[in-house]
Amino acid sequence: DSGVTQTPKHLITATGQRVTLRCSPRSGDLSVYWYQQSLDQGLQFLIQYYNGEERAKGNILERFSAQQFPDLHSELNLSSLELGDSALYFCASSSRDTEAFFGQGTRLTVV
Amino acid sequence: AQSVTQPDIHITVSEGASLELRCNYSYGATPYLFWYVQSPGQGLQLLLKYFSGDTLVQGIKGFEAEFKRSQSSFNLRKPSVHWSDAAEYFCAVGAWGNEKLTFGTGTRLTIIP
């Protein structure tokens, strides 16, 4: 158990819809990262938050957004969903001196 | 821009045999290198990491990796594999600390009796 909790584990939704993925980082970790894992793109970095502020941005679509709340949990919002957004979405967290610990992921299926 | 190449998509090894998974990276400064393992339906678990110092690093589950700057490589090794090692292995490179990890495409390891 990495200590990073992601909910829900599975999500099935229709095209055009909006979903929210939630991540609770390890206790004390200020950094939260979101990654997308798909068959065609592999594991891609989406975005990082550090103590509530956006820290780094990767290949995140404009239809996607994220935020980190004062209690340090984070949410990834995916809107106007397309079939190609079907993927495994991972959250990871770290502190200043540790590696990133990954959650179990949320498997999103868009139908 | 940083990049990672894992040239082997799939490797099959007999149980008890030795293993080497290849990883080459491209990064302009001192790289921070990682190997993660992903079992089916699971998240990513860190096997080992290299930040600085001794170029041969030991990890969990009997794995080790050697950083070779001249070859831009960070190959993962294990002297004797177990059936439970069957999984997907990802090499990753990062900037300072853990920010913005770039992953390779992964190597799927199959173990045969």
Helices, strands, pairings?
The complex is a heterodimer of chains A (111) and B (113).
Chain A: E1 5-7, E2 10-13, E3 19-24, E4 31-38, E5 42-50, E6 53-57, E7 64-68, E8 74-78, E9 87-94, E10 101-102, E11 106-110
Parallel strand pairs in A: 2-11
Antiparallel strand pairs in A: 1-3, 3-8, 4-5, 4-9, 5-6, 7-8, 9-10, 9-11
Chain B: E1 3-5, E2 10-14, E3 19-21, E4 24-26, E5 32-38, E6 44-50, E7 56-58, E8 64-68, E9 73-78, E10 87-94, E11 102-103, E12 107-112
Parallel strand pairs in B: 2-12
Antiparallel strand pairs in B: 1-4, 3-9, 5-6, 5-10, 7-8, 8-9, 10-11, 10-12
Structural account:
The complex is a heterodimer of chains A (111) and B (113). By secondary structure, chain A is an all-beta fold. Chain A has strands spanning 5-7, 10-13, 19-24, 31-38, 42-50, 53-57, 64-68, 74-78, 87-94, 101-102, 106-110. In chain A, 0% of the residues lie in helices and 54% in strands. In chain A, the strands form 2 sheets. In chain A, strands 2, 4, 5, 6, 9, 10 and 11 form a 7-stranded mixed sheet that branches. Chain A has a 4-stranded antiparallel sheet with strand order 1-3-8-7, with no helix packed on it. Chain B has no helices and 12 strands. The model of chain B has no long low-confidence stretch (mean pLDDT 92). By secondary structure, chain B is mainly beta. The chains are: A mainly beta (111), B mainly beta (113). The interface between A and B is medium-sized, with 25 and 19 residues.
